[in-house]
Amino acid sequence: MLGTIRAFWNDQRGVAMILVAIMIPVLIGFSVLAIDMSRLNGLHNDLQKGIDAMALAAAAELDGRSDSITRANLAVTTLVSNNTLFSTSGDHPLVLADMTVTYLTGIPASDETTLSAAGVDANGTNWASTDPKAVSFAEVTINASGVAAGAGAFATIFPASLVGSKDTMDIQPQAVAGFVQSICETVPLFMCNPFETDTPATSKTIQQAFASGDTYSREFRVLKVDSNPGPGNYGLLDNGLTSIQDGMARGSAGTCYTLNSLTTKTGVTFGQVNTGLNVRFDIYQGSLKNNKDISYRPASNVRKGASKTSNCNKYDVATDGSALPLPPGTGYDPTKGMTAPISDNSFWNSYWSVNHGVPYPGSAVKSLTNPTGDTTKPASRYDLYMYEISNDKVKDQSPAPSKETGTPSCFKGDLTKADPSRRLINMAIMDCKANQAKLNGHTQIKPSGYASMFLISPIQKQNAADENDPEGTGAEKAISLEIVDVDGGFANNTLVDKAFRNEAQLYR
């Protein structure tokens, strides 16, 4: 009997079956777990692609206008209406209840700082906002199980409940996209914000001043300075051009600028600014004589109050009253570089009677670009300029000896390509008081905005003798401008629609 027991004890036949029986559940468990992880990874990738698309679609609408969040929500709901299969069988579209969409004014500087679905970072800073004019980022987070419908609740094949866990995994992919806006059609200049003061409480941004009507019909005069610029001054921006003159004439800086930062440029460029801008008035001086390039075409209305002695290469103001330019403003404030607004229609009486030979039509000339919407105000210079074009008044001739009309005649190229908007230039606006220490070198500064500026008159030299050398270093008179539009949510949106390039970018 003992021999039989000993033989059975020492018999190793079939031991592998025991080991296999023990290992089969383990092997199957690991296999199922591997399948679950593969499914989990596939679902995560699909969900991440889906919310990446939604974050980009939402961010693309965050342009600072009053309806930006409404349009962003519409973009998201349009996307989630598509029936997308996220690694499962059957019809399982991602719906709004499966995710949280939060709009942010900014994001943490470090990608290591996490953001919650509510827009609060790991340091407790709340970036979320419901102000459509303040937000520029869209955050989309998939909800985990039990939060809403639970698109992030992943049912496993592995029976985790047998080991005291649950048979689901929570996945919460997140995407953050931001609105990026750049401008390419702009001269390489910045103008100091004339509404900035030494006291932040009394300062206005250019957008706030525009929205309240404070910019409307004022004349802004800006001079070039190389140190300590402030209201009433302009400066240069770093650009991709070999000639500042080309940037002034073409209306392009040779590069695109983002709204996040601009780099200032030092150096005196007397002559290049005025000769470049003056081609828009059909004046071709210095090296620009006999130019046929379509990029140097004049505006379709170049009336400027030129004297009889003026020609295609030289501009003199008529002093005998036989022609009048758009009149300058009154009540000029040199500390701000601007005049008072046009007070009443009598402002236009002399200009109209001299240049058109009849009384000013008064209320027939509407203040169409007034940002407040009040069309009963006296017309701005730009409004009057456009009225002359649309009512066939450009060809009207002023009396002898000037006999000036507004029809261009000096451009050697195709004059049918003359364009009313050639009297408009886009310029960056800087808060020069707040950034004065950064403006005297090649320093990156965030502009306070952009403005579409109407050129009121050609630029002349301070000394009449310097007019014979327009590209020389003789000091120039101020550039005379009128603000027609600005960027941002308070604008008339002509600048944004024509000049800005809007893009959405994924950040997280």
Question: Your description of this structure?
Answer:
The protein is α+β, with helices and mostly antiparallel strands. Helix content is 22%, strand content 16%. It has two domains: 24-181, no CATH class; 184-502, no CATH class. It has helices at 2-10, 15-59, 68-80, 206-211, 244-250, 272-278, 349-356, 381-390, 494-499; strands at residues 99-104, 137-142, 153-155, 168-170, 174-183, 189-192, 220-224, 233-237, 257-258, 262-265, 424-430, 444-445, 449-455, 479-486, 500-506. Helix 2 (15-59) runs antiparallel to helix 3 (68-80) and helix 5 packs parallel to helix 6. The chain is elongated and about 145 Å long. The model is unreliable at 86-90 and 146-150 (pLDDT under 50).
Main traits of this protein?
5-stranded antiparallel beta sheet; 9 helices; 2 domains; 15 strands; 16% strand; 508 residues; alpha+beta; 6-stranded mixed beta barrel; single chain
Q: Concise description?
A:
The chain is of the alpha+beta class and 508 residues long.
List the helices and strands and how they pair.
Elements: H1 2-10, H2 15-59, H3 68-80, E1 99-104, E2 137-142, E3 153-155, E4 168-170, E5 174-183, E6 189-192, H4 206-211, E7 220-224, E8 233-237, H5 244-250, E9 257-258, E10 262-265, H6 272-278, H7 349-356, H8 381-390, E11 424-430, E12 444-445, E13 449-455, E14 479-486, H9 494-499, E15 500-506
Parallel strand pairs: 6-11, 7-8
Antiparallel strand pairs: 1-2, 2-5, 3-4, 5-9, 5-15, 6-8, 7-14, 8-10, 10-12, 11-13, 13-14
Helix pairs in contact: 2-3, 5-6
